[in-house]
Amino acid sequence: MRILMIEDEPELAAAVTSALRKRNIGVDSVPCIQDAYFAVSEWDYTVVLLDRSLPDGDGLTAIPYLRNSVPGIPIIVLTAAGEVAARIEGLEAGADDYLCKPFSMDELAARLRALARRTPVLQPVKVTAGFLELDLESLTVSVRGETIDLRRRELLALQILMQNADKTVRRHQLVAHVYGLGEDFYSNTLDAHISRLRGKLSQANAGVEIRPVRGIGYLLCAQG
């Protein structure tokens, strides 16, 4: 799961981003509505976390555009306004859920997962390739029932490769999925993560291989 957080308070955005990434939830954070419009045009998101008080307007005004850009995407409104009237206003504007600051990170993660399960397009809970199985809800990886310990970016790379098994995943798609918006990385960092992932899959006898497609990206397929 990858979410877009629209929040202009740097400390809160950093705290939420860090907490959710530790729970294997990818996060991109932007500080204003216009940056959010650009983000949804370039990347795919599962859920949007939307603050109301933003530098370029009330976050609720962004809901129609977000829904038009990504039909059916769930939206959680985050705000300090906890009055009943404010919550009703947010829900009537089209939000799926409403969470008042301050909030529990565990509760936020639970709400995100609950909304992700309710998305209009039914997604498989697990994907397999060779002897490898990836649980998309818990983001756990196993071979013949034995869990493989992967770092977060190795896991994100494996996720997009397995969801596109036997197809070439372009390098820019991998970068967008593995690294959050605005994260710094060196050009060879992705290759290093893929290399370590290859080694772990080989050691676990996963029955798959990750092939480089020169100048384009990578492809995951079952070993022949």
Task: Give an overview of the whole structure.
By secondary structure, the chain is an alpha/beta fold. It contains eight helices and 14 strands. The chain is elongated. It has a five-stranded parallel sheet with strand order 2-1-3-6-7, with helices on both faces. Strands 8-9-10-11 form a four-stranded antiparallel sheet, covered by helices on one side. A three-stranded antiparallel sheet has the order 12-14-13. It has two domains: 2-117, Response regulator (Rossmann fold); 126-222, Winged helix-like DNA-binding domain superfamily/Winged helix DNA-binding domain (Arc Repressor Mutant, subunit A), CATH 1.10.10.10. The longest helix is centred in the C-terminal third of the chain and has 15 residues, at 189-203. 39% of the residues lie in helices and 26% in strands. α6 (152-163) packs across α8. The protein has helices spanning 10-22, 33-42, 63-69, 84-92, 105-117, 152-163, 171-178, 189-203, and strands at residues 2-6, 26-30, 47-51, 53-54, 57-58, 75-79, 97-100, 126-129, 132-135, 140-143, 146-148, 168-170, 208-213, 217-222.
Looking at the structure, the CATH topology of the largest domain is Rossmann fold
* Count of discrete structural domains: 2
The CATH level-2 architecture of the largest domain is identified as 3-Layer(aba) Sandwich
Global mean pLDDT = 87
The CATH homologous superfamily of the largest domain is named Response regulator
Number of strands: 14
The description of the largest β-sheet is: 5 strands, parallel
Shape: elongated
Widest β-sheet, arrangement of strands: 2-1-3-6-7
